[in-house]
Amino acid sequence: MKSLVLLLCLAQLWGCQSAPHAMGLGFREVACDDPDVEQAALAAVDYLNQHLQNGFRHILNQVDKVKVWFRRPFGVVFELELDTLETTCHVLDPTPLANCSVRQLVEHAVEGDCDFHVLKQDGQFTVIHAQCHSNPDSAEDVRKVCPNCGLLTSFNDSSVVNTVNAALNAFNAQNNGSYFKLVEISRAQNTPPPVSTFVEFVVAATDCTAQGATDPAKCNLLAEKQYGFCKASLVKKLDDEELSVACRVFQKQPQPANPAPAVDQAAPPVPPANPPASLVVAVPPGPPAHRTHHDLRHAFSPVASVESASGEVVNLPKVVHSGPAGAADPAVRLCPGRVRYFRI
Known about the structure:
18% of the residues lie in helices and 33% in strands. By secondary structure, it is of the alpha+beta class.
């Protein structure tokens, strides 16, 4: 009888120790530079870039925090805090992200802060929650590394608007093909004397010719969208101005036969297995007032819970005991992870 009671006690003890893992009641702490964490973080950044419709693509800079939650009945969820950096590739640029340069500190870099929940199941990583925002580096920090470098300025600044208009007119005047319209102002900087304005902007081809567009307002975008990305500068010299502009026109992008449904504002959709090679960007009415960059907060809507592909909702508690005290080696630095480029 005593043996039976002892056996039952041992069975209950073993069940209590294994229950959190089986029932998904706790999380596991892992290093921010763990290979699985890195794969989850890269999947999250890919998801971010697939959903951006304005501005520049971002690249992973650092994993700040991570928790790995056991998900019922299968898989695990990586709860990630990531830092990203803006690259020089526009979201419409087909250049692979690995070949995109990171925007440097002297160019007034922009950093993204993101929270992601990434489900790993059957070896596949799927983003089920995404929330980001971004901010430029401080003007003081830029001035420390480059006193005469330009600082980001608002898109509707008069010098910016004048430079973009002058550059677009110059580009169309030299163009023997389609007349191009402005889609968005992507970046703008003003520098101290000699006063200069540097801009980066997106244009799109229309059904008018550049040489025959007498009324640009009547020119419509092509059915097969064709975008271009331009860089221009306007330098003021005493009583004269020096304008330079260079544009790269991308290949035409076929209009999808069935437009994608509107994004559910309550939860971002799971990315398709084969995402489209490019995004279709609607022409905005004008440059956003007083913005100095395209904030990542407009890429997604905040999500209060995690929803799996099966519809199961998993609420993540903020404080859960992950294991016996002292289980982790204090000498092991779990997080934050390595900085891939530089800190802002």
